[in-house]
Design goal:
The longest helix is centred in the last third of the chain and has 27 residues. Strand 1 and strand 2 form a beta hairpin. The radius of gyration is 22 Å and the shape is globular. With 503 residues, it is α+β, with helices and mostly antiparallel strands. Helix 10 packs antiparallel against helix 12. 54% of the residues are buried. It contains 16 helices and 23 strands.
């Protein structure tokens, strides 16, 4: 019987289920978008029950379209939007509140209060993260303080917290009927609650944030031969299948890109943009605005760490042009519109819709378009929107090279925006290094599949995975160095205009 590995990829805007064969090829896929909820300016929410419904639907679609039979799927890996916070009733499975999304900025006052003692880097030594609205810890605090009766339920062990991986795995393994409440080290490292050395919840941080430890999931390796649990015969897979891979989406893409050696880096272009640099078994504390994070942990092998640069708005800016301004009807149309002009016409678009993430960590910033003249048309706006992604990536790359003392010779890329050749060429131009797209660009789902497959010996080792990686296209720099630096100086000047907007 032919065996496949399934990956559930629950992202910021949609949920997918994908099937992979031994060669890492996609043999089945299904996708559903879910609603984005904006109750107030700066607030971003998702309906957890809608996400679970979408998850069930894409699983059933893949099983049906692929004519999958019992035993066809050897294992399941899960990957997810990180930091997004859900709290639910362990007895009913009902959420106490909508999921608070990673982009949400409502916890700014909480972060500012926590920073009064010890500053923005108060927990960086333990958790590798600055105090920022991005992470789960302050979101849990907000929920405990604002949702009626939630704190009492949490203290009594009735309320469970999880990032989206925990939510999905809990339901897949039974939900209220003895569902498994777990997460992995990569997701736990994004909560601001896990100690990066012990790989366990840090009691000191929990006490300061007043978060009951009993509401937190158990932390497991990203790939676990002991398996986390199994699906239910009456569940959406209609089979008993081991769930044994779990990775936050950006760490999953690092695995999917087979960046297993220290110094190897990837950049994922999705709703936001996330560059990770493998630092091996060495935990490097950034001094240039990056995040120290867990890359992955496979079984009982030592944990692998990474430096990360997180950008809040990249693909989401193209969606904004589509949905809020109506400049395009489909996101794919932005390349042609941007290509209708030779350059950006002198404008820069800084999409600080949720403040600025790495390397600034400024929640007081807001978006701005600078350099406007009557000459500017919608083509220039589209081009400046794409260029914003490339400029933000350049800032991250510069910070990574300063922290790691490693000069990157190329950048592996993946995610939805890598099909945009105009953007990829400009990215190579503004970085001054080649940009490399793999044959299989769905590396986030692939990484989750790899983690699960390694756990059940579907793939024997990392060399099997490296053998699957193949180049699809390379963009090499075409821009003169002087032009590159002049454009980049303009970007840095534009960024300064966005700061201190929120008092």
């Amino acid at each position: 019987m032919t065996k496949f590995i399934a990956a559930i990829d629950q992202g910021t805007s949609s949920t997918r289920c994908m099937l992979f064969d031994y060669g890492g090829n996609i043999v089945g896929t299904a996708q559903r978008e879910h609603q984005q909820i904006y109750p107030r300016p700066g607030w971003v929410e998702h309906d957890p029950l809608e996400i679970w419904q979408c998850t069930q639907e894409v699983i059933r679609d893949v099983i049906t379209k692929g004519n999958m039979e019992h035993g066809n799927i050897a294992a399941i890996g899960v990957t997810n939007q990180r930091e997004t916070t859900v709290v639910w009733d362990r007895n009913t499975g009902m959420p106490y509140y909508n999921a608070i999304v990673w982009q949400d900025t409502r916890t700014k006052d909480i972060c500012d209060t926590l920073a009064v003692e010890g500053g923005q880097d108060r927990f960086r030594g333990k958790a590798g993260l600055p105090l920022a609205t991005y992470f789960s810890g302050p979101k849990i605090m907000w929920l405990l303080d604002n949702v009626p009766h939630l704190r009492k339920a949490a203290e009594q062990g009735e309320a469970l917290f999880g990032t989206i991986d925990s939510w999905i795995i809990w339901w897949l393994t039974g939900g209220p009927n003895q569902g498994i409440h777990i997460t992995d080290v990569s997701n736990a490292s994004r909560t601001m609650l896990m100690n990066l050395v012990s790989l366990d919840w840090d009691d000191g941080i929990l006490n300061i944030l007043n978060i009951p430890r009993c509401m937190l999931p158990r932390i497991y390796p990203s790939s676990d031969p002991g398996i986390y649990g199994t699906t239910l015969i009456k569940g959406p897979f209609n089979d008993v299948i081991p769930i044994c891979g779990d990775l936050g989406d950006q760490q999953s893409a690092l695995v999917g890109q087979t960046c297993f050696n220290p110094g190897e880096a990837k950049n994922t272009y999705g709703t936001g943009c996330f560059m990770l640099l493998n630092t091996g078994n060495n935990l490097i504390q950034s001094t240039h605005g990056l995040l120290s994070t867990l890359a992955y942990k496979f079984g009982d092998q030592p944990a692998v760490y990474a430096l990360e640069g997180s950008i809040a708005i990249t693909g989401a800016l193209v969606q904004w042009l589509r949905d809020n301004l109506g400049l395009i009807t489909k996101s794919s149309e932005v390349e042609a519109l941007a290509g209708s002009v030779e350059d950006n016409g002198g404008i820069y678009f800084v999409p600080a819709f949720s403040g600025l993430f790495a390397p600034y960590w400024r929640s007081d910033a807001r978006g701005a378009i600078v350099g406007l003249t009557r000459y500017i048309d919608k083509g220039h706006l589209a081009r400046a929107a794409l260029e914003a992604t490339a400029y933000q990536t350049r800032e991250i790359l510069d910070a990574m090279e300063e922290d790691s003392k490693v000069k990157l010779t190329n950048l592996k890329v993946d995610g939805g925006m890598v099909s945009n050749s105009l953007l990829m060429q400009f990215q190579a131009d503004i970085l001054g290094v080649p940009v490399v797209r793999p044959k299989i660009s769905e590396t986030t789902a692939l990484g989750a599949a790899y983690a699960a497959g390694l756990a059940v010996n579907y793939w024997n080792d990392l060399d099997d995975l490296r053998a699957n990686w193949q180049i699809s296209q390379i963009w090499t720099p075409q821009m003169e160095g002087n032009q590159r630096e002049d454009l980049y100086k303009g970007w840095l000047k534009a960024v300064k205009r966005t700061l201190n907007w929120i008092d």
